[in-house]
Amino acid sequence: MMTLGVLKGPVKYAVYYGLAIVWIVPVIWMVATAVKPTPEVMSFTPHWLPSAITLDHFRTLLDKRPFFLWLFNSFQVAFWATVITVVVTTFAAYSLSRLKWRGRDALFLLLLAGMFIPWEINAIPLFFIVKKIGLLNTFAGVFLPLSALPISLFLLRQFFINLPTDLEDAARLDGCGHFRILWHVIIPVSLPAYGALAIFIFIFAWNEFFWSLVALQRSDVRTIPIGLKTLVAASDIQYDLMMAGSFMATLPALIVFLIFRRHVISGISMAGVQR
Asked: Residue 160 and residue 67: Cα distance in Å, rounded?
């Protein structure tokens, strides 16, 4: 038993560090490629460290491509998808977790079943719906479907349902209705869960590619993933510009994570101890 106890720690950290290395190696390669001279980027022999650091790829991308427009478009999609998800999911999760009404659990299971349907399967019917209501080639046609992901409802509902009822009962005795209980009791103690949910939805919407490629067909509404795709031609792939663009596209999502990291870690930790 003592031997197993001693080996458990090193093995655990070896797995952690191994996974960290697997994740960080492509990031290092992306950053290194973004600042390499073009001959080294296209060289058959890989160069992990550039012989000279150049910012020409960034200048070319910013001068010859509407990168800031792509950035602004992606921010609009990610921002509104996050805001709408948080607002709508709050009321839905509260109803499905704290209120008792006929068919509640059956409806939740039906919504939960949507998590097992691949996102790409919805593309064809969703395309005709968005086109019918006139939202094709608009940001609303992208962020509204992203705001209806079942995983968002599942995460917040599971957090709400495990909250203790003491404060809620006290507020009800003081004459508070459901809305005041939700606003003054449930939401304040659920900020870690909201932080985790917001960062998840923001990053998912920021990186969303497939549905944006289908719904956004005009050049002036392209998001970053769609814009970077224009760097891939039939016979030529501009790896240097693509890596530079990917590096700059990663920074906003990284900044958002750093801002909300305490809430994310706290939310995940609290969710891990829920029954």
From this structure: 40
